[in-house]
Amino acid sequence: MPSVTRRSKPREVLPASSVEEALVGAMERLVAGGRSFTAVSVDELAREAGIARSTFYLHFRDKGELVQSLMQRLMGEVLQAAAVWLARPVEATREDLRAALAGMVAAYQQHRAVMHAMVETAAYDAEVSRMFHEKLDFMIGQTRLAIRRVQQAGRAQPGVTADAADVLVWALERNCHRLPADSKPAQVAKVVDALVHVVWRSIYLDKA
């Protein structure tokens, strides 16, 4: 009888977006109890995400590269929210600024696990640190441009300089970082209100 050779079924390769979504969910669950991202192994991440360890390495070199990929997405959402104000700072109202800041805080809250992993990993991974500061520097640069445009239009506080952008952007990042995951909407709203007050009073001449 002739031998029969069975072809093995080709292994399905998951799209990168599906793998990322699964890993984000895994990160959120694993760090929810207070564990540091550094202490979570690739094996644990893969198991919690429901994927093979080999699938992780098919898409990412290591945890640092995963964090970089997720950071790109998080910062993209933050900058998209910021554009409500940054795209038209001269014509902007206080409510425009509030909408921008509320959207930025919401993006950080939605991706808390990514944000914490990003800050934690930046402490020992030079590439993640470079990318983290590059993204914040870009936001600072955009805020500096917004301040200059407000100054040129005669709407700026006397004495305010473009350097205020550094302080304001880092204040936003730190406040978002310290907001607890279980913050009530009222708590988040208070943080947004405080940020609106600080940013508006720092930059704009009018108090509206």
- In round numbers, the mean pLDDT is 88
Q: Note the overall shape.
A: elongated
Helix segment count? 9
| Oligomer type | single chain
Structural class: mainly alpha
Question: What is the CA-CA span between the terminal residues?
Answer: 90 Å
Percent of residues in β-strands: under 5%
Name the poorly predicted regions: 1-12
Compressed to H and E, one letter per element, the order equals: HHHHHHHHH
Largest sheet: none
Indicate the radius of gyration in whole angstroms.
Answer: 22 Å
The gist of it:
The protein contains nine helices and no strands. It has helices at residues 16-31, 42-49, 53-59, 63-86, 94-110, 112-122, 126-152, 164-178, 185-203.
Description:
The protein is an all-alpha fold and 208 residues long. The protein is built from nine helices and no strands. α5 packs across α9 and α7 (126-152) packs across α8. The model is unreliable at 1-12 (pLDDT under 50).
Which helices and strands occur, and which strands form pairs?
Elements: H1 16-31, H2 42-49, H3 53-59, H4 63-86, H5 94-110, H6 112-122, H7 126-152, H8 164-178, H9 185-203
Considering the chains and any ligands shown, give keywords for the structure:
0% strand; mainly alpha; 9 helices; elongated; disordered N terminus; 208 residues
